[in-house]
Amino acid sequence: MKKVAVVGVGETKFSGPQDMTEVELFAEAAMEAITESNLKPKDIKALFVGNALGDFAEGQGMVQSLAAENIGCLYVPATRYEGACASASMAIRDACMWVASGYYDIVLAGGVERAATMGTGLATRTFAMFSDSRYEYPAGITFPAVFAMLTHLYADTYKIPLQKLREQMARVSIQSYKHGSVNPRAQFYGKNADMTVEKVLGSFVVSTPLTLHDCCPFSDGAAAVVLASEEVASKLTGKPVYVTGTGQSSCGPLGNQSDYLPRIRAREISSQRAYEMAGVKPQDIDLCELHDCFSIASLIAAESLGFFDYGTAGEAWEKGEADIGGKTAVNPSGGLKSKGHPIGATGAGQVYEVVRQLRGEVEPERQVPDAKIGMTDTLGGDGGTLVNMIFERGW
Amino acid sequence: MKTGVPFREGLFQGSDEKGSLLGARCRQCGQIIFPRREACLNCLGNDLELIQLSRKGKLYSYTIVHMPSEHFEPPYAVGWIELPEGVKIFSQIRGWQERPLETGMDMALHFEKLWDEEEKEVVGYVFRPSTNGGA
């Protein structure tokens, strides 16, 4: 397989409800990525677009083809990926494979979503489509409920009193708010920097024991990356970021992983593939943008990815080991919690952040010093789809 | 009176007193699964027998949902119940207002209305804290 480089990245601001359509949002992110790559739309050989709920959000299907047309990429293959919240990561991973195979030398991949525009009612109903409609949905499953149950399981499994665990989880939200508050592209830019444990615990209950500040928001937004072969990349940029490892795993409804819970087995398998392919270990990762749809999800993810021992991630957050300057900097962008979670775009937003961190281009307050290796972790459904990717500086 | 219809065919049979969830046991490796499927995910064998699962189990995890969903007004409870066969069932939980939920507590199977539709009421399985001991 050939080496694959990210040569340009683009992203809209992640936000609450806004008026741009998904095609327009994606075009904004895509053109930023193409322009940054010193390329023109005509150079793009194929598009890979993550989008989960566009059909429901705005009555627009086939968004990938319309987006391609909108940026002037005519007559090239454009393909849509749907894997709930992991859609864009699936799109980027597959795009990597096409370049690695040698078939294409320059492709565009990313994702777009208008989950905030949908409103909480429609968003809650359509998000629930990613659970198993045969027997999970009719019993009243919701995603906050899934992670709330995992919270109880985590407390029971690792013998941590629930109140203590909730305080540790609050630290996760506080750290994410801190970084998002200085990220101009974040939904909560300029907000919530003064969050306290008391405020998190005292916010309204969503699904016991999770409160509002344990949960990520609904968001609108898009992100895109240009991938190129090593040969092309060397002509375009002095700072190519190589995709050195990827893994993906599917597992259907969460019940299939019930022998492992609160661990997400699909993530362990997916990340192991990525580590093996890249030839690196968890301790080599300088920063990770991981799927913190809920505060407990960060603890579970950081353990499954191998950054901390099982049952100790909460302590790690309390000690600052998951922050910039700690063992592994987790979500310096603010993560899903504070940067936002436009589900079909989220994975591309994570790649955007990792690439800019490796290039040393983010705001000084949230830059991971001398970051060389970064990782993304994206979860779709209730653990039914996992994608992990590892990125390394190419200079 | 409206006709009761199951929310999905093939997952359970009968009513409150004698009903049960319908699982399957793989004759090749002994794995027990719910819901049934054509092949065993453990050994990929396709010789599975229909079995009636235990009506009692223990609460494995739970949450009380405080946001509305399509069919249920908050607050309502959901959780996983682990049956003696080792199978974990995702289910709505009722009776939690009278008996506070606690991981590991004994739970019993019931069949109740889940929601109303125009001409019918949709029924399904729920678990309630057990009053007379567990499995």
CATH architecture of the domain at 4-119 and 218-236 in chain A: 3-Layer(aba) Sandwich
Mean pLDDT of chain A: 96
Major β-sheet strand ordering of chain A: 3-2-4-7-1-8-12-11-9-10
Quaternary class: heterodimer
> Structural class of the helices, strands and pairings of chain A?
alpha/beta
What is the SS-derived class of chain B?
Answer: mainly beta
The value of Rg of chain A in angstroms is 19 Å
Weakly predicted, low-confidence segments of chain A = none
Strand content of chain B: over 45%
**CATH homology-level superfamily of the domain at 4-119 and 218-236 in chain A:** Thiolase/Chalcone synthase
**What is the radius of gyration of chain B?**
16 Å
Give the number of DSSP strands of chain A: 12
Widest β-sheet, arrangement of strands of chain B: 6-7-8-10-9
Major sheet description of chain B: 5 strands, mixed, barrel
Terminal residue distance of chain B: 35 Å
Molecular shape of chain A: globular
Please work out how many helical segments of chain A DSSP would assign.
Answer: 14
Q: End-to-end span of chain A in angstroms?
A: 20 Å
Count helical runs of chain B: 0
Summarize this structure briefly:
The complex is a heterodimer of chains A (395) and B (135). By secondary structure, chain A is of the alpha/beta class.
Could you characterize the architecture of this molecule?
- Chain A has 395 residues and is α/β, with parallel strands linked by helices.
- Chain A has a domain of 135 residues: Thiolase/Chalcone synthase (Peroxisomal Thiolase, Chain A, domain 1).
- Chain A has 14 helices and twelve strands.
- In chain A, helix 7 packs across helix 12.
- The longest helix of chain A has 19 residues.
- Chain A starts with a strand and ends with a strand.
- In chain B, strands 6-7-8-10-9 form a five-stranded mixed β-barrel.
- In chain B, a hairpin with a 5-residue loop joins strand 3 and strand 4.
- The relative contact order of chain B is 0.23.
- The model of chain B has no long low-confidence stretch (mean pLDDT 91).
- Chains A and B meet through helix 5, helix 6 and strand 5 of A and strand 6, strand 7, strand 8 and strand 10 of B.
